[in-house]
Amino acid sequence: MQRKPIQQVNAESTVLTKAAVNAADRLGLTARILSAVIGVSEATVSRLKRQDVLLERGTKPFELAVLLVRLFRSLDAIVGGDETVARSWMTAENSALGARPVDRIVSISGLVDVLAYLDARRALV
Predict the structure, then answer these.
(1) 57 vs 21, 35, 51, 70, 99, CA distance in Å?
(2) How confident is the model at residue 121 (pLDDT cuts 50, 70, 90)?
């Protein structure tokens, strides 16, 4: 297996860390919720926000952050970039999901379900 240069790995980690923190902020997720979604402590979320710590490829938090960013991008496309609508959607009861999306995404299966739901909604013709 060929290894990536250190600079490329750090760039990838920096980009995903920034994207995950930004997505959480734009979705109105608290540090507590973000920590539950990606499986790190609230203290680590604070360090991620300051970029004192970066998400590393091959770790569960990295993979879960990728899913969170995908979720954000799907929802953002559906709501046309309207942050207020996206935040409202996250906290509104959703009968198809059986709960509020913000409550579902704190488990891996719930995060995957919400992402699949959004991807299906985007695919409507």
Answers:
(1) 16, 17, 15, 16, 31
(2) confident
Give 20-65 pLDDT, tens digit per residue. 999 999 999 999 999 999 999 999 999 999 999 999 999 999 999 9
Which are the contacts of 119, defined by CB distance < 8 A and separation ≥ 6?
74
Instruction: Please give, one letter per residue, the 3-state secondary structure of the chain.
Output: CCCCCHHHHHHHHHHHHHHHHHHHHHHCCCHHHHHHHHCCCHHHHHHHHHCCCCCCCCCHHHHHHHHHHHHHHHHHHHCCCCHHHHHHHHHCCECCCCECHHHHCCCHHHHHHHHHHHHHHHCCC
CB hemisphere CA count around 34 (13 angstroms): 27
